[in-house]
Write a structure and sequence with these properties.
CATH class of the largest domain: Mainly Alpha
Distance between the termini: 30 Å
Number of domains: 2
CATH topology of the largest domain: MetI-like fold
Oligomer: single chain
CATH superfamily of the largest domain: MetI-like
Length: 279
Amino acid sequence: MAEMSARALARFEAMAAAARRRRRLEAALPWLVILGMFGLWEFVVVAFGIAEFVLPAPHDIVRAIIKWWQPLMQDSLTTLYSTLAGFGLAILGGVLLGIAIGSSAMVYKGLYPVLIAFNSIPKVAVVPILIIWFGIGIWPPIITAFLISFFPIVVNVATGIATVEPELKDVLRALGARPRDIIVKVGLPRAMPFFFASLKIAVTVAFVGAIIAESVAPNAGIGRLMMVASSRFDVPLVFAGLVVTGFMGIVLYWIAEFIERRTTGWATRGQNQNLATGG
């Protein structure tokens, strides 16, 4: 009996050690992939003698970041502000409209075709109109970031609420629940995984909207900096702007993912257990 207990304990410790190694590998894997990608990039540029104005090597981009760190910092903060402002408006408007669409078939039939048509319009074509209305400044990037990140949030929130089982609604109505109670206590929790999935998409495309507006209406921001660098054929600085934008996007994605794990861990607990055990 004691021998069987010892074997079970040893097996449990081995599984725990394997799970710890797996978690460490999962934490290090993104950085290993990024380092490998940049290492391959450096090797290709150096090995084939690619000119700097065609494709700069990573060390050229790092040198440009160090040289132009101050304007990069100022313009990246401007872009980050525009992106977060537009993204915040998209969350507010997207959640409210998603609740309305997901909870009412009439609202769905009336508004959904309009939303699809509007989302099909290239946002770069809307920027000149925004410049006419609001002038060259902070508002065109904010509104463009809002427009480009609004649709994914609406669709996912509406889907989460609309997919509540009819049988569950019938039971809740029989127990005296009002439509508002069903939405607040069942629909919104059901929509949370969909909502956070849309956030991780919207927060990255919001940067696209802000930079598009900054490129068309150059006043400040990473888009303006890259346009100025392109006009001077300073390609390393252009790539430096791209790298800084990608870094900000990754940070915001991780923040959204962190909040998702803390608030909707119940939605993926089975998947996490399967991953932990190698299933």
